[in-house]
Amino acid sequence: xxxxxxFASQHALRLALAGVGLSTVGLAHAQTQPTSTAPEQPAVLExxxxxxxxxxSSARSVPASVDSVDLxxxxxxxxxxxxxxxxxxxxxxxxxxxxxxxxDLQISSRGFGSRSAFGVRGIKLITDGIPASTPDGxxxxxxxNLDTADRIDVLRGxxxxxxxxxxxxxxxMFSRDGQGAPRVITEVSGGSDGLRKYRIGAEGEYNGVGFLxxxxxxxxxxxxxxxxxxxxxxxxxxxxxxxxxSRLAITVSGLHQRxxxxxxxxTWDQAVSNPRGVAPVALQYNTRKSIDxxxxxxxxxxxxxxxxxxxxxxxGGNRKVGQYLAIPPTAQASPRHAGGVVDFDRDFxxxxxxxxxxxxxxxxxxxxxxxxxxxxxxxDRTGYENFIGSTLGVRGRQRRNEIDTVTSxxxxxxxxxxxxxxxxxxGLRHNTVRVDVDDKYLANGDDSGQRRFSKTxxxxxxxxxxxxxxxxxxxxxxxxxxxxxxxxxxxxDGSGFNGALSxxxxxxxxxxxxxxxxxxxxxxxxxxxIDTKNELVVATAAGGRTSYRNAAQTKRRGVELSLxxxxxxxxxxxxxxxxxxxxxxxxVGTGTSRIASGNKLPGVPQTTLYSEVAWQPRPWVSTAIxxxxxxxxxxxxTNSAKAAxxxxxxxxxxxxxxxAGAWTFRQTLRLDNLFGKRYxxxxxxxxxxxxxxxxxxxxxxxxxxSAQYAF
Length: 711
Hints:
Blueprint: H1 3-18, E1 27-28, E2 43-44, E3 48-49, E4 57-58, E5 65-70, H2 71-74, H3 84-87, E6 93-96, E7 106-109, E8 120-121, E9 124-127, E10 130-131, E11 138-139, E12 149-156, E13 169-175, E14 183-191, E15 195-206, E16 209-220, E17 229-240, E18 246-261, H4 268-273, H5 280-284, E19 288-303, E20 308-324, H6 329-332, E21 341-359, E22 365-384, E23 387-388, E24 391-392, E25 398-419, E26 422-439, E27 449-467, E28 470-481, H7 485-488, E29 504-518, E30 521-533, E31 536-542, E32 545-550, E33 554-568, E34 571-584, E35 607-618, E36 621-630, E37 647-660, E38 663-672, E39 680-683, E40 693-695, E41 700-710
């Protein structure tokens, strides 16, 4: 049986067991059809993961912190719009819905990525084997299509470095394969602040060819003023077996957002007095962003003789972005300024090739992986003034015209060896990232430049099975995080390309335990220690331009705990707790911009807690209470500005399902922030205007209904 076939069989088993359970992977009820009696006592199943091992493995057998979030179990009761809905239950992650679709989610893993002002930084995002992160580490979680997802794997810690540079963690989404009888589904949902979502899809299998097609349109007026958005997503997938030993999957996807309004951040006084408010300059300049992205991917696997397999991933696509910023004309008068309108047309492509080999001659079970990844993006990037005369928020004179090219070429090798009660996993990757800026607009100076970053990053983990129910492990690894093209764009002295920036490097250690307390309860715990050198921090932020510098060493020490239990008949519970002490381990800078040793890293809460209790008295109805707690968050490196206070909120959800012949009907209702808590949901780290704060929604509601017909 091929690796992919094995994975497919595991997937089918999970679907058969999933039913309408609402907690994370493992809490599955055996019944999937309505009956007149209560379901049997549920068991906690071990999730199957691919991320980290590159072949299907039980999460409990991997010497690393890795979780698999099964969308079939938790998507019911969720809007299916943002990855924050599902990733919030993973320890080690901080996922913030910014109430701002122009800037995407904020995601950090053990502190990596917390400084990102837009998009996702320092975490490797992958969808169906296709990177959703550029080679320099900038990613977009909006490309995750939750309506088509089967599961999301999340890997933290030292072993994530085998995925290359800028991999402080790995979040990998897998779409469903088309399986079973062909069926069509239509869904309509709505909620607070003018939220509307319409979806239509079809999936199944016909004559050995699986298919999945899905299209949706989401629109919202936004919680805050000037935050309206419309998002359209399309997805298509064909999966088939050309012969008994191979598998082919072809995916195509699209993401379109037109004139998504950006309310910007607020000062503390503005956030307190009017959390729904908008920065006045956002209205003045009509700050907004448009995105148009399409991509195509091909995944092929062939099982060879003597336990060998080869896997090939090829992808390509295009992403266009136009963004209007609130940069005043006086600031743009600087000779080397690039203007207040950002416009780029990006082509991206890549290929990944892997060889997997089972070594039957070795004692125990030894699997080897060798591969190479090549990724490339090329931006045709232009900039314009955001005014014409006294009219603001319109495209004016050109101030920028350059070609930005980023490439990475990384060979790697990995070994997974099970010998009795011991499991060894080791990996080695050689990372090479090249950034080239070719400035074509020389009227304001030549901002051309190039840098090449290269480093070999090893990692290893060792696990021991004390007994069939308890595994303990240790792991260690080296990490490597390059500056992004945006961080290299400006020097602190006002000139162009910041070639003086160095990559940050980290040394990571982790120890953990994975225990099955009984057939209904699973406990995972990990402690970690991360030392990072040359951490990138803001050097200057003024006039719409931000420059960066390398800071002193930082330390991140913490504990992660997750408990997953079907503790009573019809009842399940989940707890995910993270404690993270992230500090600077040396002083840097002078005067008011001095970062003192011991300062807290901005954007990183010390304590994060997610918990839920779900009740499913019958297969056709389920309900759950969710709790989210986060401690205060500092907003800039000196820790002198007002920190965003900690908060705790309660959410509630319920779901119903009915079947009538070939029809299946589902209804969902959820209430978020039940008690209307006013709090800061996310922060913009180091904002040069002091607009650090992004208020979260008060009490909101969401309701949805769907109808599915199976042929």
